[in-house]
UniProtKB/TrEMBL annotation:
<dbReference type="InterPro" id="IPR013221">
    <property type="entry name" value="Mur_ligase_cen"/>
</dbReference>
<dbReference type="GO" id="GO:0016874">
    <property type="term" value="F:ligase activity"/>
</dbReference>
<dbReference type="InterPro" id="IPR001645">
    <property type="entry name" value="Folylpolyglutamate_synth"/>
</dbReference>
<keyword id="KW-0436">Ligase</keyword>
<keyword id="KW-0067">ATP-binding</keyword>
<keyword id="KW-0460">Magnesium</keyword>
<protein>
    <recommendedName>
        <fullName>tetrahydrofolate synthase</fullName>
        <ecNumber>6.3.2.17</ecNumber>
    </recommendedName>
</protein>
<dbReference type="Pfam" id="PF08245">
    <property type="entry name" value="Mur_ligase_M"/>
</dbReference>
<keyword id="KW-0479">Metal-binding</keyword>
<feature type="domain" description="Mur ligase C-terminal">
    <location>
        <begin position="301"/>
        <end position="419"/>
    </location>
</feature>
<dbReference type="Pfam" id="PF02875">
    <property type="entry name" value="Mur_ligase_C"/>
</dbReference>
<dbReference type="InterPro" id="IPR036565">
    <property type="entry name" value="Mur-like_cat_sf"/>
</dbReference>
<feature type="domain" description="Mur ligase central">
    <location>
        <begin position="45"/>
        <end position="273"/>
    </location>
</feature>
<keyword id="KW-0547">Nucleotide-binding</keyword>
<dbReference type="InterPro" id="IPR004101">
    <property type="entry name" value="Mur_ligase_C"/>
</dbReference>
<dbReference type="InterPro" id="IPR036615">
    <property type="entry name" value="Mur_ligase_C_dom_sf"/>
</dbReference>
<comment type="similarity">
    <text>Belongs to the folylpolyglutamate synthase family.</text>
</comment>
Length: 436
């Protein structure tokens, strides 16, 4: 493979689904590559929602301390290269081509004795990431899981510490069907004698994490018990301030450039993880320095206000817990505002539940659409759950234009949500040369 596009075509042509829960193929390719996952220290981040934000925030905080940082996230917002970054800079096209070929050559070598050997797309990308990070001589990797924990293809290294952001009902066909099943799967990132930080989780599953941490002799830090936030305030410039308190870190009036209430909780989880990281690495960081970094962080596609006249807000909420949190923030931040919702979903998501949530606020008008990809829900997947007032459009562009032209005033709001892929396309269109 010689070109960037050839590499992307190869990566995306790999099987998408986990054919089994086994990590055997992942361990097999890493052995062939010389165990690149052992070349650096890592932080493992899982959770139903919030793990992308926590991964990004942690990476920024650690980078500011002079460490060379690798960041692994999924999915991307604008370009595939965002999935693996060094010092918050996406992998170059040339490096992606080079390291994909390196992994591919090892796959061909394995096939000489194991002809049926194959990697899924996520296994392949994970192998490329580990190999690239080793070559770049990073010191700390912040690695976001794909799905779950125990059987996730990233769960092949021993982290410095682990993070579990939230637990909710998503990916139930793979790690469900119950909330307890989801929690048990995510608890697999907890490793022996390694600290674990846990955000807001339902009380019904909290004991699962406590028992796992106790069995592994892992120090446990839980939100609302070992750390908490207070004095959350929305500001006129569409930012927020809040206070953070833990045993070893107390910060007053932290400012973040985001209006989502749930991002305050994500910031708190990241701050607690960073505090524990500093203890592990014997690093002391002034409070003013931490606040400076948090003020600079931009969370793309996470209740992101990209326009104010009219308001256009992007959020990748794609499961019921995230959608509920999103609407709670919208109703807090834009009270009594008419909201025009442009939404697309994937077929394997809880579409009925998602639409029930979107149908609750009276001041919301829905413009449902689809995306040009096999997983995207189409009209036939949506009809049974639509209200008579909901509208369907064959393309997101048509849905967006309908919402835009139905605005009665510049004070109304267009909300783009339901799929990170929709957010990606709309963001690229509106911020990189497109026009409303």
């Amino acid at each position: 493979m010689e070109t960037y596009q050839e590499v992307l075509n190869y990566i995306h042509s790999r099987p998408k689904k986990h054919r089994s829960a086994s990590l055997a193929n992942m361990r097999r390719i890493l052995t062939a590559l010389g165990e690149p996952q052992t070349a650096f220290k890592g932080i493992h981040v899982t959770g139903t929602n919030g793990k992308g934000s926590v991964t990004q925030i942690l990476s920024a905080l650690i980078l500011d301390q002079g460490f060379k940082v690798g960041t692994f996230m999924s999915p991307f917002i604008q370009r595939f290269n965002e999935r693996m970054q060094v010092d918050l800079k996406p992998i170059s096209d040339e490096d992606l081509v080079y390291w994909t070929n390196e992994v591919w050559q090892k796959i061909l070598l394995i096939r000489q004795t194991e002809p049926t050997f194959e990697l899924t797309e996520f296994e392949l990308v994970t192998a490329i990431m580990f190999t690239y990070f080793r070559a770049e001589k990073i010191e700390i990797a912040v690695i976001e899981v794909g799905i779950g924990g125990t059987h996730d293809k990233t769960n092949v290294f021993t982290p410095l510490l682990s993070v579990i952001t939230t637990v909710g009902l998503d990916h139930l066909q793979l790690i469900g069907p119950t909330l307890e099943d989801v929690a048990i799967e995510k608890s697999g990132v907890i490793k022996a004698q390694r600290p674990v930080i846990i955000g807001k989780v339902p009380e019904t599953v909290n004991k699962i994490f406590q028992d796992r941490a106790q069995a592994q002799d892992s120090p446990l830090y839980q939100m609302a018990q070992d750390f908490q936030v207070s004095q959350v305030t929305l500001l006129p410039d569409y930012s927020q301030t809040f206070n953070f308190t833990s045993e070893n870190l107390n910060l007053k009036t932290i400012k973040i450039r985001n209006i989502a209430r749930f991002e305050v909780d994500n910031m708190a989880v990241a701050l607690m993880a960073f505090s524990v990281f500093c203890q592990e690495m014997q690093v002391t960081v002034p409070a003013a320095e931490i606040k400076r970094i948090l003020k600079q962080v931009t969370l793309m596609g996470r209740l992101e206000v990209i326009n104010t006249e009219p308001f256009i807000v992007l959020d990748g909420a794609h499961n019921p817990p995230a959608m509920s949190e999103l609407l709670a923030s919208i109703q807090r931040d834009f009270p009594n505002t008419q909201v025009h919702v442009v939404a697309a979903f994937m077929k394997d998501k809880a579409i009925e539940e998602l639409l029930k949530i979107l149908h609750q606020p009276r001041q919301m008008t829905l413009y449902l659409t689809t995306l040009a990809m096999p997983r995207a829900a189409e009209a036939t997947d949506l009809t049974a759950y639509m209200r008579s007032s909901d509208q369907y459009f064959a393309t997101w562009q048509d849905a967006f234009y309908a919402a835009y032209h139905n605005l009665a005033s510049e004070n109304e709001l267009i909300l783009i949500c339901g799929s990170i892929y929709l957010v990606s396309e709309v963001r690229h269109f509106l911020l990189e040369g497109g026009q409303t």
